[in-house]
Fold each of these.
Amino acid sequence: MSMEPIIRVENVSFTYQVSQDQQIPVLQNISLEVYPGEYLAIIGHNGSGKSTLSKHLNGILTPKEGDVLVNGINTKEKARIHEVRSRVGMVFQHPDNQIVATIVEDDVAFGLENIGVGLEEMKERVDFALEAVGMSAFRHRPPHHLSGGQKQRIAIAGILAMKPQCLVLDEATSMLDSYGRQDILAVVRKLHGEGMTIVTVTHHMSEVAEADRVVVMEGGQIVLEGTPREVFAHQDRLRELHLDVPDASRIAALVHAELPAFAPDLIHNAEVVAEVGRLYVRQAEASGS
Amino acid sequence: MSAEFELTRNITIGQYLPTASVVHRLDPRFKLGAFAILIVAIAICNTYVGNLFALAVCLWLFQVSKIPLHYGISGIKPAIPFIIILAIMQLLFYGEIANGGTVYFQYGIISISSESIRLVIVSAMRFVEVIFLSSVLTLSTSTTELTHGMERLLGPLEKVKFPVHAFALIITIAIRFVPTFAMEMEKMMKAQASRGADFGTGEWWRIVQRTKDMFPIIIPLFNVALSRAEDLILAMEARCYMPGASRTRYTQYKAKGIDYAALGASVVISVVMLGIPW
Amino acid sequence: MTQPIVDVQKLSHVYMQGTPLSHVALNEVSLQVQAGECLAIIGHTGSGKSTLIQHFNGLIRPQSGKVIVNGMDVSQPKIDIRSLRRQVGLVFQNPEDQLFEKLVGDDVAYGPFKMGLPLEEVKNRVKWAMDLVGLNFQEMKDRPTYALSGGQKRKVALAGVLSLQPKVLVLDEPTAGLDPRSRLELLGRIRRLNREEGLTVIFVSHNMEEVSQLADRVYVMANGKAVCEGTPRQIFGNQELLREHHIGTPESVDILYRLRERGYDINPGAFLPEETACEILKLIQR
């Protein structure tokens, strides 16, 4: 790709220091680029290093070896960390643990206060961010009465207000029920449609199917990479890594095994339906002629 | 019995009662300032009539803030034992120190004089007034406004390197997490009770045992609090929070005429209260 | 029909009764669970599921209506509540939060120890419970709990409840927040407890894949009321019902409905991926 990446991860290794002489390697020589407008999914079972990698993308963690560059700024440059973090925003797993203020709109403004945005602009940005996640009606509410999905939308609004180029979701839907998750996915889909770069770390394969590119991690390394279609084609490999595939892929593979004409590389429900339609019509024609 | 574990559901910090009165609409900085002035005046005032006047002002405040008086009275109830103990101490021992007024009774260091009786009555009145005042304040001001107001009032302390922003943020976060931890505690009690734990049913003198019984709740609560704190720090850092860095403020308060009037009124009331010679 | 092991009759519950914040959590709910059954309770957040299951072991006593568990009437103030809580093991959401002992074995032993059992019996039960959840007793009992992974901690917590040797196991969102690997393993363990150990299992879940794989019967709640009940096939085969009560569906069911909407003759109750594949094959190979 000729485009300049927003985030460039170069040969990054990271270890957790457990005690003086014991270190646990978590990332091993990882390189990855995230391009503007891209929708990237990172998957892997717990302990594969995917969460640690995502925390490197905005300088919450800095590499032991290698570099992470955000728009050319090295995340190790302490003096410019504000620039990095306002460009790459991050939403975390627990809805309850990332809300700071006692009133919704105060919370959305928290990041803006930190980077010293003036009052008039702050008001505009808070309005915009709450509108973008559909939570304007809740702006004066205390957050603890909101549902998990609503809290996560507030957390996203708090990031959006900072006008980032890239939104990182670190298992942001894993604590939500299916409706909360659908809400968040709809918001993310809309933002991506408007040009936002999205990086999502998730266990939900139906979310992964929506991404442009998938990175599969195991043992601190990237072991598979490609479009969702390419990655989900490796069903056996994924099973070895203790990962799911979307039901659509599994069903397509099962049908394909019995009936080779049926395309095996389907990842969306709609594709399965279309494929059934294609073969059904052909069969009807065959029997008709 | 059915409400065995439901205690925490009722926790509200602050007890904001939104009646949209003029008192509710006051700028929290001015409101806090005015209440502070009144409370200082009450602390100084030691005359019967002055305190009666102050009591009248309190009742009037309930009236204008449209808060039913029983909210204030229910605030007094828990303080009654304390008021009584204080009154007895003052009644018995203060006469000796005060050496003024007529002595009615003397035995060793115990001395009851007209001075000590006045002090007992005035102290009790002060107590009631302070409770009434703080009730009106907390019932008419949300916790958010309270922290904002306090932060602004403490603002000048920043000149002497007092971390006002950090202090206000700590209080905000504490308030923000009260309901979360209340729910957490309820869940923890229920979960452990489901495994056969019992809390506080042992004899009261077996303090060690009863304390041990609480471990299955306290230890997990600490763990949960720690992991929440870690998460929160990450989330705050991800939104560019830097301890000690200068920040702008989203909520701005603009004082209106009524705010100055309230502050002025509190000064006038204080002067009158302290000026009454009886 | 035999006497149900859990019998709920017209149970109602109001939180903070008599205050402006009062809120009806349960409204005349009735439910019978037979011994050995595996029942899923589903419904939107706030539909009253959690309140209902907390009645099963007497954490909440009935305000009106009846709850009878294994012959014990929970509304009677004088019943032996400890015995009830031993018979009904309740596992809360994210139960790994409740571990408090330093070592795995000690934490699992907490319940039996509180029952005042002799040491040997406590040990046997801990071993038994740890085996059931797939934790090796010798290897794991002296491990510190804080060093375990999330999935392992959850298994320890489950063992801590199983060590009470309950007849009924009640779980609130048993696999929420786990990765696919731990989720599948835990589901397998729960299924085995139900099918092989004969435990009656009642679980609350938002995850419809999980419901479809585990439950014999599904009980649907909305706004504190029972909406309907049936086998997973009946429930997932009823699209109008699912839509009306905002119940999610397994992905496979979504595919089946889309096919049916296009006019194909397909059985929407065939929700396991293998069955869905069969249905599709039948359709295009006919």
Amino acid sequence: MPTENRKISHQPAQNIHPRHNLHLNHVTVRRGGKCIITDITFSLACGELVVVTGPNGGGKSTLLRTILGEWPYEGTIIFSDCQGNISTRPTIGYMPQHLIFDRQAPLTVADLMLANSSRWPVFLSHRQKDRQEISKILEQVDASRLIDRRLGELSGGELQRVTLAFALNPIPDILLLDEPVSALDVKGQALFYQLVLDLRARYDLLTLVVSHNLDIVTKYATSLIVLNRTIRFSGPTRDVLEARERGTTI
Amino acid sequence: MNVWYTLVEWLPFSFLQYDFIKNALLAILLIAPIFGLAGTMVVNNRMSYFSDALGHSALAGIALGTLLGLQDFLLSMILFSVLFGWLLSGIKNRARSSTDTIIGVFSATAVALGIALLSRQGGFTRYSNFLIGDILAIRPSDILILLIVLVLLLLFWILFFNRLLILSVNASLARSKGISVRALEIAFMTLIAVLVTVSIKWIGTLLINALLILPAAAARNVAGSIRSYHGLSVLFSLVSGVSGLILSFYLDTSAGATIVLCSAVIFAVSWLVGRGKTDSREEP
């Protein structure tokens, strides 16, 4: 359960919560009799920023949602902390590719954020203390001015900022981002990845980003997974870059 | 009850001299907030057709009660509608047909089963008051049941509303926060099933769903946040409940139907107001 010291705050990096590694072992996901993902095995360490790329329909989103526990799978998925102790339920921050929701619903950004961070029922009121806390979190993604806007009125980019803030509260052990910057402009994208890098540096969290943008791989990622129903390539970013320089395609 | 009777006698309304009106008014004052609150999430989760089916399934619950030889059908109705809801949501998650088709099939089957069993030897008219309901026949012991349901709903809302809200926005988001999506869905559905069933005798299977949907739908037209959504839904529910009861007394009409008509008027006004707000927002 979230505790105070796991919320975003300017605490020193050495005072961090247990961090998690992620191990997938022969994972296969079937939907409606079809294999979406076949026999995937990989291990990722704390502090890695992994980009998952590959063609459309290659199973990238499915991979994230399987790690999230949304879809049944064969094989094993194990979470462990950096000391190798197995954990049953790490805190996961998830940012879906398109947040599909009822845009007509009378729901503000504060309603959604407070429903997540506070136990106080949001249909009664918003407590000032809780509001200040989420305001700080929204500030980190440059979205504090959106706090009282209706969720359904937000632009694509604004909504992505808010869903990131939602994913980061409490600070997760594993951050799963599904095409997180598709609706952001160039400035917004740079800000977004700078924030992810900051978080990584501060909390040593493992981040998986689904993206088509190879610039991100070269600029920010520590390793890369190319997925087309099964793993076509996985390894540190520098190997990919070297392969590129040699003119080899992956 | 005596405290309530004394309290009501202070009010300057001639129709309040009858005990059955006093009982009905108290019942409405309990039913209205329950339905106003619960309706918000039924509408947000697009479950209005589902709750309609729950209301209709009560007929089969009554039939079950007669088969079991029960005097009071409430228990068999609750049992049947809860089972019906579980079955429906289980199949809905697995089936390939669209949700409204499945609900349609189940709802029709339950109604047909109810009518077939209750009409044996031409005795259906005995049960026709379940179709339109009769709130003027409510007794203090029935009001106690409504009070218990109201307390239960309030407790559930206070403890689980935040999670329910995240779930209503997006199930994947809810799951990422460790919310047991399936358990929460089942708990909410069970609560709606119980709520609808305990009120059917007073409002009737035909109109019970309107009481759940209309105030919340009207509130959604004008509300801008979760708090105002809930506040307005409860307010609309209370206003239409009380005014419907009073009107039905003077017009000599069915209370349930008159309440629903009042709700419909509120909905129409809120729709116009809401449309005006949207138009002015869209103007440059």
Amino acid sequence: MARRVVITGMGAVSSLGMSARATMDGMAAGRSGISALKFQDVERLQIRIGGQIHGYNEAAHFSRQELSFYDRFTQFAVLAAREAVAQAGAGLAGPKSGVVLGTSGGGLQTQDENFRKVYEDGKNRVHPFVVPRLMNNAAASHLSMLHGITGPSYTVSTACASSNHAMGQAFHMIRAGMADTMLTGGSESMLCFGGIKAWEGLRVMSKTGCRPFSANRDGMVQGEGAAVFVFEALDVAQARGAEILAEVAGFAMTSDASDIVMPNQSGAERAMQGALNDAGLGPEDIGYINAHGTGTAGNDSTECAAIMEVFSGNPPPISSTKSMHGHLIGGTGAVELLACIMALREGILAPTINHDQPDPACSLNVVANVAQEAQPRATLSNAFAFGGLNAVLALRLAP
Amino acid sequence: MAENVATKVREIIAEQAMVEPCEVALDATLESLGVDSLGLVETVFAIEEAFDVHVPFNANDPESKSFDISSVASIVKAVEALIAEAK
């Protein structure tokens, strides 16, 4: 029989707070982490808001030597992992542990900074560690080194679904017996001039705010941060008497095979149905859905139609916490998994803030503006990426 | 100038529609010319580059009155207004 997989540690940094607890508290309070962006050349952008982490002092967390190797996305992953590992209290050193992280931009800020130096400032030399700093696997590699993890480690990059794909892989690896313990989740930090300049070209970003499922929504708002979890085989966690936060019950991934940016209802439906099947759950067992809910015209109506189909017109409460922390792209599924854990452990369903006007195209059971109390026994977390790659995780109450 | 704007806008749309500029009638819609949502975003970009203006277009709200894309003529008119504004 396949091994069961549970979560024994969680850590996060986001514009809602510098820990998993602070991020969940922000979600529960319906607080907005979206503010005016601050970085060089922001005045040359059309889009000037985001879920940026302000007041963060990297030197307070890392030595000068570490910082020469840690892009901001690596720093966030290291901080989140530190918290998750401390909570789990598990010994991760050795070949039975691994790391799978999601990211889309990787060390984009390092690239942006150094492109500016060579192209704009005309410099002919960059720091010798630009490559190890910008590579997409830098965060995963540093986690393996910091925690003595010598089993399988790698990075998954599937745009907005990166974290969910990563956590699904970690789940599969433990279930298959390839590892006992995995550090998994995702990290992203694209809030720099080049990062936002590229995104604004697509004309899908909002200048005013993230309003998922609301009739007046006009686009997505980016965020930054990370969340990292300790996934562990149930038998191993029980043997050491660990506190179990939730069970990873099922996972599924599908491809739309249709359009590079427009989502496809069938792909989303098949991913949700697949996660239910994998978990051995029926639609009636799901008490909360953390939606992909980007606040774009395209995603929200398509996702809602897919949910209505899978849940036969009777969906459970649903929210998009992107309304509060923004869209963390490759890190988003990880931060959003916190909302599912909070729902299961604490009976609090995080709201979708800025839900100003119901939209007939999104007539779901939206947890609007303020958190709700409920006792879900299982949850789904959706991620649907550009490129039509979908990944859905199902969690269940700790056994 | 007005004629030049229309000529250039028709060239830009023709390139996206993969037809000759003379086949882009002023009363045609982008849809009838086969320009999809991605083609529209590229059209807006090409207009901004050609006329050095900022087009207030959000793909989440293509019906918005801030930049009327209901026909080739309405796009020409909107671009002329943006050029006048920029002066």
Amino acid sequence: MQPVKHVQGRMAPLDRADVDTDQIIPKQFLKRIERTGYGPFLFYDWRQADDFVLNRPEHQGASVLVTGENFGCGSSREHAPWAIRDAGFRAIIAPSFADIFRANCFKTGLLSVTLPDSQVRHLIDLASEDAAAEVTVDLEAQQVRGDGFSYRFEIDAFARECLLGGLDEIGLVERHQPAIAAYESRRAAWLPTVR
Amino acid sequence: MNTPRTLGQKLWDSHVVRSKPGEPDLLYVDLHLVHEVTSPQAFEGLRLAGRSVRRPDLTVATMDHNVPTRGGARAADELSRKQMETLAENCRREGIPLHQIGSRRQGIVHVIGPELGLTQPGMLIVCGDSHTSTHGAFGALAFGIGTSEVELVLATQCLPQSHARDLAVTVEGDLPLGVTAKDVVLGLIGRTGISFGQGHLVEYRGSTVRGLTMEGRMTVCNMSIEWGAKAGMVAPDDTTFTYLERRPHAPRGPGWNAALDYWRTLVTDADAVFDHEIQLDATQLEPHVTWGTNPGQVAPVTGRVPEPRSDTDARALRYMDLRPGTALADIAIDRVFIGSCTNARLEDLRAAALVIAGKHVHPKVRAMVVPGSTTVKRAAEDEGLDAVFKAAGFEWRNAGCSMCLGMNPDILAPGERCASTSNRNFEGRQGAGGRTHLMSPPMAAAAAVTGHLVDVRELI
């Protein structure tokens, strides 16, 4: 994974709560066996409406998605963060995220940042009024900064370290091989195996 | 004396391979379930890194999301076929047992795990599917993961996890006639909303839960993810042990007794403290139906479409083409789907068959039954349920996820309205433009007969 230190760019405001992963990437696009190529299908059904916010010319090229609470609920499909990344976004800011979606974002190198409702509201309003407004999502400083504001965000320390270092999590876990083998030797004999 | 612990804490602690302050715990996975949609990129990642599957003997694969439910074992489209062939090839190469399409034990991943006896109390079970919480019904810690985590588990059989909080849902009292496990969980989500469970291990307890069959407990735990919970679980008891005994992968002989001794310790200690507690009175529950586009937008069938309380509600009503004040029982339907990992087990099919026996599907309705597994299908046929459904005008299909998510040809046409026993009523979930009303199997069966949403208690 490439290290992620900060994301700077314009925002796309998706002012909706409880956006589920079926909306982010509908099921008919889950049949591919690759990790890439999902960008054109991001919010496929919603994009059929011309006035959908991500269709507006002023938000083309935005790299920070700002949205409502419980973003990414529903299906565990990692195709959702893949599609968001493929479409050019590098960070998502919301009051809260669904657990599996958030974990998937970290693995994908997509920054997911939680801020209080009032601060997210400010960002959504700002992006809606001035599409050219830029923000910096700074993972090292744990801040979202823009013209005249700076918001601190909290993030799991280990996830932050992995993102900043671009660490290969499988490699990290493999270092604990002796502990894994020791655990395996303690497992009950009656636990099911399939061979 | 040991600190009192919740069931969730006991399950967590017993799987810690390594723990270090400031880092997630490294947990050991006892069973990794795999299906065709969320695994190909994980296997590819392994291959590119020169890694192999650490414990193919703790890994089981099935084909379910994409499979056609009629017309033989050939997928309807090239991409679906390629995805299934890729799974078969990956399983062959890595030595992973696969219940492929057309085979005797194929079915929805969360239906076959329990029926094969692979799902047992005390285990940690993961799968690249959010409804993995189903397996918590056995007193297992079970949750859905993404494809990168699938790759991590394939490679190491472990998963780093940050601590979750504990939440107790206590349901007390006898369920009234016509009210099912589905109504318990829909009623709960209606009260809590769809994100209350975030970051929590939920234990369902109380006399109502104790009185549920394993099938009912699975329905409740299955929908834990629909209110955002990390996992849902029920402490194992004699109902659990009776279900498990003599299943193909259940322990036998001295192993059974050793397992039983351990399983009986898997209860929340008397003085253990939960971070949150919710109480629900089962005696006041009615059959529920959803009216919106998330499972929290739900009401008793005796009620009316509510006034919108948020932008989300207003959007949902527009999508569903419903007006506030309309009696829910006045909503006409076009389709009925009895299926999914939530409600397609033998007991669910029996409950639906009981409602439709001697009646006929409304002439304007197209109804189908998709058993949760090939085993369920065979068992249902052995007791003649297929004949009941067919005589009533239902289509009787082969096992798979089918119209729960519509990855195969079983989808709603735009604007079609469906009474469904599945778990999600999201926009387009069952087909772009389709409108889903979630409910229990008896409620879906009653809707099939009358052609509209209806209180099943009027038919029984």
